[in-house]
Amino acid sequence: ATSYHASAVLRQLSADTGIEDDSSFGWGASLGVAQEVTDTLTLRASVVHGDGVGGYLNLNPGAPAYVVSGQVETIEATGGTLGATLKVGPGAITLGSAIATADWDDAVNDGLAGARNANEMFRSTHLNYIWSPVKKVTFGAELAFHERELWSGDDGDALRLQGMARYSF
Q: Which CB contacts under 8 angstroms, 24+ apart, belong to 140-149?
């Protein structure tokens, strides 16, 4: 089976200092697909793009907008995901990767303080296994690698191992 999703967000971003006020229109759109390749394997992909989308884009490294000289300026952002889930034993293994970028060039050109050190890209790749050995009990283990890059070109990464246990009442 194949399933699709599409979504959109429209928003008004405003700033009011008591002396000056301004607003800008923000928007975002998302498209995605999931394909059951077999009874045990599902592949997924999605893409999101917007201007002023902010936190509506998962992992978005940028704010939705900034204010310079009393004007609200939106920040363009794009992201995407790829993933595969394979049912194994009492659970499933998922390998997924997501990336999000924000365009800080205009903010840097406008002289916004701190813009040269703003996060411009986040990327996250994870491998996990989540299983339920008995009804109402779920366990999980995940290994994840995260990266970020600043507008200035500086970058960093982190490796994380985590686990979870859940009992559903």
A: 140/164, 140/165, 146/122, 147/121, 147/122, 147/123, 148/61, 148/119, 148/121, 148/122, 148/123, 149/119, 149/120, 149/121
Average pLDDT, the chain: 95
Q: Which helix (H) or strand (E) holds 105?
A: helix 105-109
For residues 150 and 104, give the distance between their C-alpha atoms in angstroms, rounded to a whole number. Answer: 10
CB 115 within 8 A of CB 106: no
CA distance readout (Å), 33 to 6, 81, 101, 125: 9, 10, 21, 19
Residue 124 has a pLDDT of 96
pLDDT for position 61: 85
Could you tell me how many helices (H) and strands (E) the chain has, helices first? 1, 10
Report the b/e string of 88-112 with b at 16+ CB within 10 A: eeebbebebebbbbbbbeebeeeeb
Band the pLDDT of 121: cuts 50, 70, 90. very high
